[in-house]
């Protein structure tokens, strides 16, 4: 038998969708290690680090539209919205689109759109505890985070802490931001934070959205 080199490995481990749906229903969040294909992580990481090195990132803020504010005391990452520019981005976004279909099929969520950005946290950066759905705009339904940094050092910090939805000071999980790890949670109910990192930290944060048109104002993605 010749090895089947023509078939690319899937972007996400095939068993992920079922486990993920179950975990979302049971506890509102999911974390899996070695879920995202490592070659894909490496390509995305390289693209992000290249942008970071050539000033191709924007400082991240909080709030949308005219309420958008730069607050380094709240979050310290720099971002770039995914735009399908590279093959790696397209492969990641296509995998998210398959996940969107699986979520709609299993949970009738009516998700219709996905927005995502690269995030680079330089040493010292963090993101204080928050919810991902902006107040008055309940349009982000499910959050995803794909981690891209290989060989995360054990003293690197930068873990994402997930808190209990009903007791926001109770920690329920700590996620090491190691390449291949994928996290997913309910945007409106799961408080989470990024602890100060000591090592450059790279990821893709993304959100499945429902259409939200409030008071005649359309709310497009981003
Ligand atoms: O990078 C992470 O672990 C989480 C980032 C986050 O909470 C966000 O961008 O809203
Ligand atoms: Fe968040």
Automatic annotation (TrEMBL):
It comes from the Bacteria. GO terms for molecular function: ferrous iron binding; L-ascorbic acid binding; peptidyl-proline dioxygenase activity. GO terms for biological process: cellular response to hypoxia. Its cofactor is L-ascorbate. Keywords: Dioxygenase, Iron, Metal-binding, Oxidoreductase, Vitamin C. Residues 107-210 form the Fe2OG dioxygenase domain. Transmembrane segments: none annotated. This is 2OG-Fe(II) oxygenase. The lineage of its organism: Bacteria, Pseudomonadati, Pseudomonadota, Gammaproteobacteria, Oceanospirillales.
């Amino acid at each position: 038998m010749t090895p089947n080199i023509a078939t690319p490995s899937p972007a996400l481990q095939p068993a992920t969708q079922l486990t993920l749906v179950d975990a979302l229903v049971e506890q509102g969040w999911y974390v899996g290690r070695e879920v995202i294909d490592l070659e894909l992580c490496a390509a995305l990481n390289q693209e992000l680090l290249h942008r970071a090195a050539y000033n191709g990132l924007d400082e991240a803020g909080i709030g949308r539209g005219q309420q958008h504010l730069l607050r380094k005391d709240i979050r310290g990452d720099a971002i770039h919205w995914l735009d399908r520019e590279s093959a790696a981005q397209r492969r990641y976004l296509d995998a998210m689109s398959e996940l969107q279909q699986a979520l709609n099929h299993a949970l009738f969520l009516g998700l219709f759109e996905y927005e995502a950005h690269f995030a680079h946290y330089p040493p010292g950066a963090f993101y204080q505890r928050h919810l991902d759905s902006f107040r008055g705009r309940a349009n982000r339904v499910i959050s995803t985070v794909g981690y891209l940094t290989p060989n995360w050092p054990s003293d690197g910090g930068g873990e994402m802490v997930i808190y209990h939805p009903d007791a926001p000071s109770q920690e329920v999980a700590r996620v090491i931001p190691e390449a291949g790890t994928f996290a997913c949670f309910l945007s409106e109910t799961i408080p989470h934070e990024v602890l100060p990192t000591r090592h450059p930290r790279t990821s893709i944060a993304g959100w499945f959205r429902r259409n939200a048109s409030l008071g005649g104002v359309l709310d497009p993605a981003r």
